[in-house]
Amino acid sequence: MINRENAEALISEQVLTSIFQDATQESTFMKLAHRLPNMSSAQTRIPVLDMLPMAYWVEGDTEYEESSKQVWDNVYLNAAELAVIVPIPEAVISDAAFDIIGEVKPRVMEAIGKCVDDAIIFGKNRPNGWSNDIITAARQAGNNVDTDAGTDYYDAIMGEAGLLSLIEEQGFISTGAISSLSMRAKLRGLKDADGHPIFCPSLQGSTQYVLDGAPVYFPANGSFDNSKALLVAGDWSQAVYSIRQDISVKILDQGVIQNPVTKEIEYNLAQQDMIALRVIFRMGWALPNPATRINNQRLGCPFAYLEPNTPETTYAVTITVTNEEEEGLVGASVNLNGSRRLTDVDGVATFNLRDGEYPVKLKAEGYRTATQSITVDGDDVERAVTLIEE
Q1: Under 8 Å CB-to-CB from 22, ≥6 apart: which residues?
Q2: How many CB atoms lie within 10 A of CB 111?
Q3: Are strands 274-286 and 370-376 parallel, antiparallel or unpaired?
Q4: Where are the chain's structural domains?
Q5: Using CA atoms, how far apart are residues 104 and 86, in angstroms rounded to an integer?
Q6: 287: three-class secondary structure by DSSP
Q7: What is the dihedral of CA 115, 121, 124, 128, to 10 degrees?
Q8: Residue 130 gets which letter from DSSP?
Q9: Could you give phi then psi for residue 126, rounded to 5 degrees?
Q10: Angle at the Cα of 134 from the Cα atoms of 39 and 231, rounded to 5 degrees
Q11: How far is the C-alpha of 3 from the C-alpha of 99, rounded, in Å?
């Protein structure tokens, strides 16, 4: 007889390459974004252009030539962990006519894909070490288009002040869009000036949903949040992610499983003749937003979205940057968890954020860099920061 002890080598922890492909297929974000090499540690640093050099015309034979500089900034990918344990009685496995573990694994991968899309695109349960989600980043750049019951969706998406135009004005071209399944009906209903359907040329053929040459995806994993957006479009090559190399699937047959809230023991695997499938998935992502000739101050965002009739509730976060004489600093850079603004003539930068904790980094020429942490909890926030001269 081959007992569990004899077969221990076959059921011990193992790194499965198939989990990479499965998770990527289940996440719409990971299908569209640019994948970097696997992370070898919990944090990966990406050098990103922060300032481009300038060139100047020189008048006369003896005029002095002006100097310029190029500056780099650091953007970090921090690995966050997704994990799940699925306990299964051994008797159930023995009596089942199907491979239960084989049936469970795809559903676990689907759940991982949903969590990734929820956090990166919509900010739901965003890990503390991750930068602002795509919707939040687009909102800070002004890349949100209002809609109501009478909205002309063709104009809202394709028009001069539409969704794609907002992306292009900041130096990017949309490579794809994602939307809820309910948006398909709105797109199918779009007609040209002669009353012909734009997306549905024939009732007998399948409809191809394409916006200005870029495909539209309709996630079926339940991640798309209609309360935050109706459609999200952008240059997905600007978003990068990396998977931590120690992803693993492990079948446990010893130990106990506790309730994470009450800490009470829910299952004793050995005593109750159970096994448990444990999956650990770690990844990080970033929106580096390097300086370009069009987006030279890194204030733009490669994404834009259609806002629903009732926009998501956000709160104004006002940051005032002053010097030691309490004078407002003009043009100070305020980096609020990946979203950037420059202070106005009064030294003020304003963001619109949902509840959460946000790290802030403030920089100004000739002053020391300062860091802060801001918490938004159901109300507007005002913060004054004084920078010290170098």
Answers
A1: 105, 106, 109
A2: 17
A3: unpaired
A4: 8-52+70-127+241-286, 134-235+290-306, 315-386
A5: 8
A6: coil
A7: 90
A8: S
A9: -60, 125
A10: 130
A11: 19
Q: Are 324 and 389 in contact (CB under 8 A)?
A: yes
Residue whose structure tokens are 């299964």: 88
Radius of gyration of the chain (CA): 25
Of 115, 119, 114, nearest to 129 by C-alpha is 119
- CA 299/CA 339 separation, integer angstroms: 8
Alpha carbons 177 and 236: distance in angstroms, whole number: 9
* 2-58 pLDDT per residue, tens: 455 555 555 444 444 444 445 556 889 999 999 999 998 889 999 998 888 889 899
* Alpha-carbon span 43 to 31, nearest angstrom: 22
Domain 134-235+290-306 fold is hypothetical protein PF0899 fold (3.30.2320)
The CATH classification number of 8-52+70-127+241-286 equals 3.30.2400.10
Whether pTM exceeds 0.70: yes
Task: Please state, in angstroms and rounded to a whole number, the distance separating the CA atoms of residues 114 and 281.
Answer: 13
Architecture of domain 315-386: Sandwich (2.60)
Tokens encoding 199: 């997306």
